[in-house]
Amino acid sequence: MERQEIIDKAVQYLNGHRILTMATASKDGDPDATALEYASDGVDVYVSCRPDSRKVSNITENSRVFYEVHEDIEITKENVMKLKAIQVAATGRVIKPGDSDFDGSLAKMVKKFPVFSTLPKDSRVFLHFKPKKLWFLNYKQKFFHRDEVSFNE
Prior knowledge:
This protein is α+β, with helices and mostly antiparallel strands. The protein has a single domain, classed as Electron Transport, Fmn-binding Protein, Chain A (Pnp Oxidase, Chain A), CATH 2.30.110. The protein is 24% helix and 41% strand. Strands 1-2-3-6-5-4 form a six-stranded antiparallel beta barrel. β6 and β7 (146-150) form a beta hairpin. The mean pLDDT is 92.
């Protein structure tokens, strides 16, 4: 599959889903994983969390993030053989109220999840994930098949 085709499929997949599972680690390597709602802009992803969360402190200390978006399927051989997902190694950045891109990040979340318009602005921060490497999984094509795309920073 050509690079742009992989990116287009990944964007389409991101646009069609709501939840990702992200993993971060502290500067000492202590891991943390959580499922969160997200909004995307192309292959860039935005999540919202509390300013005092472990995710924020981890990304502040260690900007490396890994996340996956996948189907919630009943585990049967037939379903697993049709699995599609994306996995992304990314750089995370914290966006705080008052930052120049805070309102744009909020607008992306509100568009996908209107409930975000009811939250006080200062109660949340956004995490912006910029991909370094993306894998599009398509087990229907071949079991464990992954197409890979790298991004320049």
